[in-house]
Amino acid sequence: MRLLRLVLDSALLSPSTAASQGVVLNVQYLPDGTVMELSAVEGDLEAILSQLEDAQETEAFDHLGTSGARHYIFQYGRPHAEVRALINLLEKHRLMIALPIRFDSTTEATVDVLGTFDALKSAYDTFSPEMKRRTSIEHIGEYTPARLGIRSVLTERQREVLDAAVATGYYATPRTATAEDVANRVGCAPSTASEHLRKLEARTFGQLTTADSS
Q1: Domain 151-212, CATH 1.10.10 — does that match?
Q2: Cis preceding-peptide flag for 100 (omega within 30 of 0)
Q3: What separation in angstroms does the CA of 197 have from each of 163, 176, 178, 209?
Q4: DSSP character for 8?
Q5: How far from chain centre, in Å, is Cα 15?
Q6: How many C-alpha atoms does 75 have within 13 Å on its Cβ side?
Q7: Whole-angstrom Cα distance, residue 50 to residue 2?
Q8: Which is an annotated GO molecular function term of this record (predicted)?
Q9: Whole-angstrom Cα distance, residue 5 to residue 2?
């Protein structure tokens, strides 16, 4: 079994742009083209529900409750055209999505698609130009349960930057390296390294918070 990790625009999967981060816990694709989705999100609940109320693609929704900072939202409606096209490709090539799907307002949405190498390649080759514009391949390789550890929420480049940061002493106490040192180690501009560090910190701390409140 192979894994294709895609990074998508979070607006395609998040129930609301008012959600700062969250996970899609369950999703059901119905024969009539509609989708039922259960998400756990963080952010301003009133703003999230207001956006769902106004969203044309949402036919029904419900706030199921809140635990800590996480709001559990049920949503039923019609997905974005790009998501519908992706669903059709998954069905055509007999692929599946590994849940949960993580998303946030900073680092977009990470979707793990599982299947044979040939099926994954064929599916991606038939992506429309618009879908390719709104997605990027972050990783392709063997799928193993071990990838479900906390490092699995990071992109491959973010893991490389994290390893460099640890090796140079960026996270030492006291700190013995700068973002420029990390940049020199991975071969990128200091501003790029700083951006990667901010994003990987947002993802890892967000995952720790989610796991702690489970």
Answers
A1: yes
A2: yes
A3: 11, 16, 11, 18
A4: E
A5: 13
A6: 30
A7: 39
A8: DNA binding
A9: 10
| CA-to-CA separations, 99 to 38, 112, 114, 158, in angstroms, rounded | 11, 8, 11, 21
Please, where in the chain does CATH 1.10.10 lie?
151-212
Please give the order of strands across the beta sheet that includes 135-142: 58-67, 70-77, 35-43, 19-29, 96-104, 108-115, 2-8, 135-142
pTM tops 0.70, yes or no: no
List pLDDT tens digits, range 93-152.
999 988 888 887 665 788 888 998 889 888 888 888 877 777 777 677 777 654 456 666
Q: Return the SS3 of 212.
A: helix
**Residue 192 in this model has a pLDDT that exceeds 90:** yes
Instruction: Give the span between the Cα atoms of 34 and 63, in whole angstroms.
Output: 19
- H-run or E-run covering 86: helix 81-92
